[in-house]
Amino acid sequence: MRIGRIILIAVPVVLALAVAGAFAAGLRLVPLEVRSFDTQAALADAMHFEAEIFRDEWGVPRVLGATDGDAAFALAYAHAEDDFPTIQYALRAALGPEMLAADESEARGAYLVQALGVTDLVAAEYETQLTLDTRALLSGYAAGLNYYAALHPDERVRDLFPVTGRDVAALAAFYFPLFYGMSDVLTDLFAPDVERDGARGQELQVHFIAPGEQHELGSNAIAVAPSRSDDGATRVVINSHQPVEGPVAWYETHMMSDEGLNFAGGTFPGVPVLHLGANPGMAHAATINRPDLIDVYELTLSDNGRTYLLDGEYVPLERSTARMLVHVWGPFAFQVTRPIERSVHGTVLRTERGVFAIRHATQGDLRGVEQTYRLMRAQTLAEYEEVMEMLAMGNTNRVVGDSAGRIARYYNARMPLRLDEPGLDWRGILPGDRSDLVWSEFAPFSALPHMVDPAAGYVVDANHTPFRVTLGDEDPREGDFPRTFGIETHMTNRGLVATTALAALETISRDELLAIKWDHSFHEDSQAMQLRDELLGMDWSDEPLMADALAIIEAWDGRADFDNRNAALSLLTYQPVGTARAAGRAGPPLDEAFRDAVVYLAEHHGRLDPLWREVNFIRRGDVAVPLQGGPDTLRAVYGQRNGDGTLSMVAGDGLVMLAEWDADGEFSLWAVHHFGSSNRPGDPHYTSQMQDFADEVMRRVPMSIEAVRESAVEAYRPGERG
Asked: Contact 63/715 with Cβ under 8 angstroms?
């Protein structure tokens, strides 16, 4: 099926699940049931953990534990200090039948967790699939949240605590299929006509961007080997694009333990592992790829609706019941029940279009969080590759480099082994009456289009096809891989600019590498420039204002720099059309988008060619800083209109890092965050990095325990901060 993105569970995925009257069935008023939180038990449990939190001048928490579980305990506590509301919101989504929904929309989210089998999976497999040390990590993280909740009762929600390691595992298991497009598939099934933004690139985590807004998302990652760098260094650019706010905005942190863990990078609220970053031996970046990992089957039901046709016989549907609680008032809630049905394929959904079953790559697998944890500990390329062979994360490209100068671009996917039959469209709706179309095995990791230690001396990914990396003979060939894998073949603007620039350099210096990362131009073959040419082909001679506007479009050089006077009109026209077309949707007609951009700028600026610095901003609270860059540039900035003639960044570059080992093997790590370490208004670090982010300046990250202690402006045990 077509890969999509996570959209706000309340809208429109929840709307997609809302068959008329479905939640009216089984509705009854019941006494309010919530988890019983023993604060004294949480306080006592916290005494078993040995951990410290260090905060540098930027407020970034660097946590040290006697064990990895202790470090997770401290991470949870430190993150709760900075953003407890978002952590709670994220984790509540994983509670399923135990979540006290605030409204009907949240109840449907609770239904989705149960319908996709997450609740049953965690109940049955938590202790079987996850190793003891992974469970210790999850439990330590949960204990840290419980400790903070016990000390701050006015901040906690009443249905979540005590958090358990199982809850944390459930959130991860719930997220992984959403990362590779489950949300969009559900919406396409239930509400195909719902208008949504055409997100592209990092098509996972637009968890809190409402439909109708136009954003692309993406990621950039580059690794350069000593053989290609001008100074014998190994460098890795880590630049995953996310929303700037919400449960999938990057949070910078650093986990250390006496057991050898030492990893600095980015994580999300409610998650005890870091998805990207570096340790002194290994750095890795993550970008989203879009292989075909979800299949939808149309079922033929019997007259009674309880059996379905399979290989010429009617087979019973497996049935169970989901429970949702919606708070009404005081001690009362509505209990809503809804049937869950499953076939041999997976979860069954009844829609106005028909009855469908969904099968996805990570159903039945909890180990994605464990694989991510293992990757944090890998010190060499060989160790990293061994962990990647778990194939438990579902998808995401990985661009890596290690202290020995080895680099790689891994196309990671838990790729189903499917029947390759002429005329069978695995991206379409499949017949549900054939058991030979129900796959159960996966291609080994080695069967995917990777590039390890290429002679070119570099690898790059910007959410583009893995078949165009160095633009040379070393690139994987599309024909060598089965069509049933559904591997993407398109090029993003970021991919075009990066591959062209890197291939043109005989050697790659540090400054040249960073110039590519911060590049804010559009390639002549990019969709943006193609739309520009399409617009220039239109006749506006009968409308003088539009003819003047067209002259501005014609003069645009394809750049989004501060003092560009042609970028605003060009990019305000491009973004709504380009994002929709890139996602395979119609979007607004180009001429309408052009006219709308003209009106917007004329109304608010009194001219059609304001400087880009007068339009494009990152904002938080009362701080507004102009930005270079734009949609699908390597300096990625996806803006939302404010209604005053300006844009505010809502997604794109967030946590940007550069890992490097010089010719002598000395390691250094550099970073900048789009806002700062705290999501609490009024905190000094709520906006403390915004100017550096706008100036495209990174700071040195202390990596050894000694350097962390030396750079700390605060050092305390969880619960002891003044």
From this structure: no
Answer left, alpha or beta for residue 416, where phi above 0 means left and psi between -120 and 50 means alpha: beta
The answer to whether residues 35 and 206 touch, using CB atoms and an 8 Å cutoff, is no
The model's pTM is 0.93
| Alpha-carbon gap, residue 417 to 712, rounded angstroms | 51
DSSP assignments along 65-89, one per residue: ESSHHHHHHHHHHHHHHHHHHHHHH
Q: Which residues of 253-273 are buried (b: 16+ CB within 10 A; e: fewer)?
A: bbbbbeeebbbbbbbbbbbbb
State the virtual CA torsion across 177, 178, 181, 185 in degrees, nearest 10.
Answer: 100
169-198: pLDDT as tens digits? 999 998 888 778 787 788 777 766 544 433
Tokens 């060009």, residue located:
570
Average pLDDT estimate for 104-125 = 89
Q: Treating both helix axes as pointing N-terminal to C-terminal, what angle do 132-151 and 165-179 enclose, rounded to 10 degrees?
A: 110
Element holding 601 (H helix, E strand): helix 590-605
* Structure token pair of residue 190: 């239930």
Instruction: Identify the CA nearest to 299 among candidates 318, 314, 284.
Output: 314
- b/e per residue, 288-312, with b = 16+ CB within 10 A? bbbbbbbbbbebebeeeeebbbbee
Amino acid, single-letter form, for residue 545: L
What is the rounded CA–CA span in Å between residue 119 and residue 173? 9
* pLDDT band per the 50, 70, 90 thresholds, residue 140: very high
Tokens (6 digits) for 604: 């608010």
Q: Which of 699, 701, 638 is nearest to 277 (CA)?
A: 701
Q: How many residues does the chain have?
A: 722
d(CA 8, CA 312): 40
Cα–Cα–Cα angle for 254, 207, 269, nearest 5°?
A: 25
Nearest by Cα to 412 from 285, 592, 500: 285
The pLDDT value given to residue 722:
65
Q: What is the pLDDT of residue 5?
A: 31
Whether the per-residue pLDDT at 84 is higher than 80: the answer is: yes
